[in-house]
Amino acid sequence: EQVIEHLQALVFNHIQLDLDFLQLQQGNIRSQGRAENISLEDILQFQQNKQKINNTLRFNTEWNIHLADSANGQVRIQRTTGDLMILANNKLGIGLSEAWLNADIKNNQAQLSTHLEGQLLGKIEAQGSIQLSKQGAFWGVAKNAGISLAAELNMSSLAWINALQKEDTFVIDGALKANLGITGRLDAPIVNGSLQAKKLKLRSILYGINLQQGEMTAHLDNNQLHVSDFQVKSGAGGSLKGQGTLALDSRNPNAQINLVADKLEAVSKPDRLLIVSGQAQATFANKRLRISAN
């Protein structure tokens, strides 16, 4: 048995550690303490998208955990300073003002709640539970862990999506509200809920696309996305309306979409102009795409 009590130290990159106690026995860990000034950059590194994301987030955390035959305890994480800067054509700061995560663990079941809020991000709130399990000497979340999650999103801007493009070909923006419920397993989630998007924009100088004033109303039912209303206008005043269904299943994707165009300026370039009117139906099933139009 090893026991450490009342340890205060400055570790790693200016992290202030205040450890009340740490007890280590074979198959039994107890710990309580706090840590301040933790840099998320040091933990995540953002190696895959380092050229696109600059992270200055710092946070504090406190914990009181007991890991033995079962997992129990509490963990609190609270942002103190910093932001996420998405490096697109211009630096795009999410403007993060508040972020926290709480986990209350009892008999291997973690009850989670989180809140994110920022000028560009808007507001995201979620609460739910996930099953923890022990694999060898370590505790964690298995791929087939049971989950139950409710989330509410109110995103005032979708401009951050632009930074995820490999090339700055399109300019995307809009606002999104969503209420989602996720159940099932982590590797096979079942999603239900509602979505509403407004002020949607899609522009591309390269392809001559200028769509704006877009709106969408949709709901999710057992991983099926049902779009009841979609409409968008082109720069010259034409419109595109549609509805349809999309199955969110990578093993068996399928979709059915109905579109109506009315003098839609689909392409507008100095050397090319394409205006579309008419109806179209698109169906994707069994890895086959079928399109009919008139």
Helix content percent band: under 10%
Net shape = elongated
Arithmetic mean of pLDDT: 88
- Main β-sheet, in a few words? 17 strands, antiparallel
Q: Figure out the total of helices.
A: 1
Q: Regions with pLDDT < 50 over 5+ consecutive residues? A: none
The assembly state of the depicted protein chains is single chain
Structural class by helix and strand composition: mainly beta
Task: Give a quick rundown of the structure.
With 294 residues, the chain is mainly β. It is built from 1 helix and 22 strands.
Topology:
Layout: E1 2-11, E2 15-25, E3 28-39, H1 40-44, E4 53-55, E5 58-67, E6 71-81, E7 84-87, E8 91-93, E9 96-106, E10 109-118, E11 122-131, E12 133-135, E13 138-140, E14 146-155, E15 171-185, E16 188-204, E17 209-221, E18 224-234, E19 239-247, E20 255-269, E21 272-285, E22 288-293
Antiparallel strand pairs: 1-2, 2-3, 3-5, 4-7, 5-6, 6-9, 7-8, 9-10, 10-11, 11-14, 12-13, 14-15, 15-16, 16-17, 17-18, 18-19, 19-20, 20-21, 21-22
Please provide a written account of the structure:
Helices cover 2% and strands 72% of the residues. The strands form three sheets. The protein has a 17-stranded antiparallel sheet. The chain has a three-stranded antiparallel sheet with strand order 4-7-8, with no helix packed on it. Strands 12-13 form a two-stranded antiparallel sheet. It has 294 residues and is mainly beta.
